[in-house]
Amino acid sequence: MAMSKRGNVRLPPEVNRILYIKNLPYKITGEEMYDIFGKYGAIRQIRVGNTPDTKGTAFVVYEDIFDAKNACDHLSGFNVCNRYLVVLYYQPNKTFKKMDTDKKKQDLQDLKAKYGLSTPEKK
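^ that's the sequence the OP posted. Answer follows.
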């Protein structure tokens, strides 16, 4: 087991095998990403943003959470083509904020129904 050599190291809760990278040069290629991030360990997948909304960002998925932590610690602020990388742990809960809002709306409607409160319907 790979875990044994590390003992029982406690990782902060936000540490994740998936890194979210911002402020990348727009022209960076997957190969260049592998060159930079592959130095820290085996990579399962790299997704470089290619739409106007996602340009300059990428996801890097490591096989091992300790490699991801090492890369995050070392590559934050790393200079690539005069741009300083912003390396964050991917936080799926941020993606689900929208679903949260929909759930809150539903809860509110349930409460209103329960207490017989009504909101005028929008015509």
